[in-house]
Structure formats: structure tokens, C-alpha cells
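Milestone M4 deliverable, item 7.
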Amino acid sequence: MSIALFSKEYTLADNKADICHLGMDQRKVNVLAREYCDDIKRKKKQAQHFTCFLDCRRDMRKCQKAEVNVKIKKGYCPPKIVEGNPCLEYIKHIVFPWCGYFGVMRQVENGGTKMYNNMEELILDYESGALHPADLKPALPKALNVILQVGLSMYLYDLQPELVL
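Output delivered:
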């Protein structure tokens, strides 16, 4: 599975990615692209629209690790609540498909380092309180920064997605 993290040059109609990750501000454009796919008899692509607190797609050169860290730290992530939790949505739709795992490093007295291999396991710990937002939120930008670094390399070096994905 491949995911497009930004769509500056690529649209849903011509993108080779399976899922396009976009902000809510790009929803109308994707509705038009899906209608166009119907017109030209092309398979529709899935688009994930998030309330985007990772708004780095406008200028990838300004998307620094510290900026991602700050935005995730300020992001909405209520304890023990899975439904509508944007941090968990990023993990589910981006981190797990891209990396295949999600690692949380924490103090031994807080349960120690834990590696999650699937979303169900992570949700069980999160709902029970075994995984707290204070542990999850520092781990999320680390995973996202690895993924964004690939996107940044594509942008800066004008690489084709299929060469990177």
C-alpha cells in the first residue's frame, strides 16, 4: 500500500498512491477528481481528509521536525477516547500502513518501551489507560518525521513516488 502525503503535483486521478492524505481544505477538489474518474471510467482512489494539524504540505522546506513535534504536542488527544481522536487516526491510517508498527518509548515505571504491531493492540491499551496521551504524543511525531523525510526527499530532489515507495 502506498500513501501520498501531499498532492502538490499529483491528483487523485493520476496519482499512483492507494490513499491520498489531505487536509479538509482539499476535500472539494477530491470530490471533483472522483467525479472525473467516473467520467473517464477510471478506478476511484481513497482520500483521507483530516483536520490537518500537520499543515506542512504547503511548503515542504519549512516542515521541520520541531514544527511537527509542537503541532502534535498541541493536538487533541483525549485520554481513553478512541473515537474521533486525531492522533490515533494518524497512527491507524499513516504510521501502521507505512511502517507496520508503532513504538512508544517511556520510563520503566510507566510500563517501559512497547512496540505495537497492530492497531487493535494499541486501542486496547489506550482505552484501558495503559497507554496515556503523554506517552503516545511524543512517539507519534518521531514516526511521522521519518515518513515526512521521505516526502521531503521526493519534493527536494524531484523524485517520482514509485522510486521512493
